[in-house]
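Preliminary data (for renewal application), magnesium ion complex.
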Amino acid sequence: MKVFKFGGASVKNAEGVKNVAKILQSYKDEQLVLIISAMGKMTNALEKVVDAYYNKTGEAASLFEDVKRFHYGIIQELFEGNNEIFDLINDTFVEVEWVLEDEPEESYDYIYDQIVSIGEFTSTRIVSAYLNTQNLPTTWLDVRDVILTDNSYREAKVNWQATEQQAQKRVPDMLKKGFVLTQGFIGGTSENFTTTLGREGSDFTAAIFSYCLNAESMSVWKDVPGILTANPKLFKNVSKIDRLSYREAIEMTYYGAKVIHPKTIKPLQNKNIPLYVKSFIEPAGAGTLISDETDSHYPPIIVVETNQVLLHISTRNFSFVAEENLSRIFAVLAKHKLKVNMMQNTAISFSVCLSNRDERIEAFINDLKDDFKIIKDDNLELITVRHYLSEILEKLKAGKLILLEASLGGTVQIVVKDVPQIERV
Ligand code: ASP
Ligand code: MG
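Predicted structure:
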């Protein structure tokens, strides 16, 4: 049994869905569990619906019309008018419209999960119905019956034991009839409420299924040929890495490489399940294999995180930033769910680089401002280079102001600001 995950970019239009079906024709005889994300940018579009609804801007219904129109456009291209998919999708949308007609009463995070999850419910209905028209028998599975979580909406924690039980109870029988297709990113509570696992969580869903069903391998199908040494949208001459250890993959995602969700690797590593990152554009390519192998010589790997904030925190009474002050600062960081991307300290000051979450950072500063002086720099980039070579580092630094730099082992991190190039007039 293998697990395949297809992300939003692979099913962003009717062509994409047809392409997925074409890829799957070569796996007809395999036992496959398919995890599918929301189509294209639908999760972002649904987030806007939630915002408008919660903040009562009056635009929720029309924003939701855009979401409906997008999906109707795709199913009109894929199906004959009498296919039951039209009714299924209609019913899903009507349920959301009922919600949107009432005043928002529940918490933002709860509402978010109930509405945003529609993206995955719709995409999986569409892809599953389409595969069935292509001679690829597929059973649609409601993932809320398998992935059981607590009720921390928007970042639900998986109950692994219950999930493993459900997966083993339900999925093997379904696999006897063909592919099993289900939603990424979604879970359910024991009271049958819908939860989500955090943005981009579909990779994690695939890892959960792989773990619980002891998959032979897991594959993530993407719009890149595999894991690359840098983001090709930002750098020239990037190359594909053919093989990576679990450890290197975890390190990369920790530093912000967006190619797979950070939580994906650990469940796979626990059971030594190989992970392939492959291209849905060139499905015959070998992709990248992430496995148990020992680390070999890796090329320099560059990860860039934009929209970073640097906080310079110093004590007002000139006490050292040592155990007590640090533990207080970290407790407040944790309280506001701020993730530290890089840090450094001197005797009386501590600098920390965070991804910009305006409200959370303001709340953090507020909590500490009586005892600490805090200066904020924003609009920064955090560049991490693993296995660095000094030439590469020099190039990356050119024309930038370096606000913080640290290196450990073969990894260098720099926080930089663009400086306008001064020129003589
Ligand atoms: N659709 C969700 C998102 O865009 C989950 C995923 O794509 O992995 O965040
Ligand atoms: Mg996505």
